[in-house]
Design a protein that fits this description.
By secondary structure, this protein is α/β, with parallel strands linked by helices. The protein has two domains: 107 residues, Tetrapyrrole methylase, N-terminal domain (Cobalt-precorrin-4 Transmethylase, domain 1, 3-Layer(aba) Sandwich); 109 residues, 2-Layer Sandwich (Methyltransferase, Cobalt-precorrin-4 Transmethylase, Domain 2), CATH 3.30.950.10. The chain has a five-stranded parallel beta sheet with strand order 3-2-4-1-5, sandwiched between helices. A hairpin with a 7-residue loop joins strand 8 and strand 9.
Length: 233
Amino acid sequence: MAALYLVATPIGNLEDITIRALKVMRQADFIACEDTRKTRILTSRYHIKTRLISYHEYNKKSAAEGIISSIAKGKEVVLVSEAGTPLVSDPGSYLVKLCMEKGIKVIPIPGPSSVLSAVSASGLDISEFTFVGFLPKKAGKRKKLLNKLKNEKRTFVMFEPARSIKKLFEEIGDIFGNATICYAKELTKMYEFIETKDLQTLKEELDSNSDLLKGEITLVIDPNPRVLPPFPE
């Protein structure tokens, strides 16, 4: 079926790809990728010969025109991000919006997500949660957003580069106090680390273990400080 297929790809472990995702990627006329080098690792692993083209933040408007034209001619086009579910803190919103304006069908192919992986393993209240994505790089804007979240009663999730985690933890401490945080690093990869503790304990662990300051970090934060119950013996 001619359409834009939003295909979720592994966030680390290549075995997390779904059977449906592989089928769609194989039958597509081409795959639009945020990073063709990373996508080629996946397609090579599963012997997918479909042509790859670049689609990223810097060429999204020009590339979208070609993609829309191809689908209008009956082609099947897959969109993948660097890893995980497309459009979650990744480019693609412009293309999807354009497809809808043109009456082109958009079909999501669900799969891996660092947000849901971290949330599900956090042990925190996830009956409701807010996804923040990446915080602004500028200190003023970042603190403004954190202060806004101070009034948030729901658990919230954010991405943060490992190199700036210590600085962020200082800011969180100033605004939220000793909040409870799930620190999820390198999800689904060899050095996966998932731990939920109070902010002060996590800061001490980061100070004593530099390996925790490497890789990709997803934080799940309970803005209401509380003491986690001990695990049963």
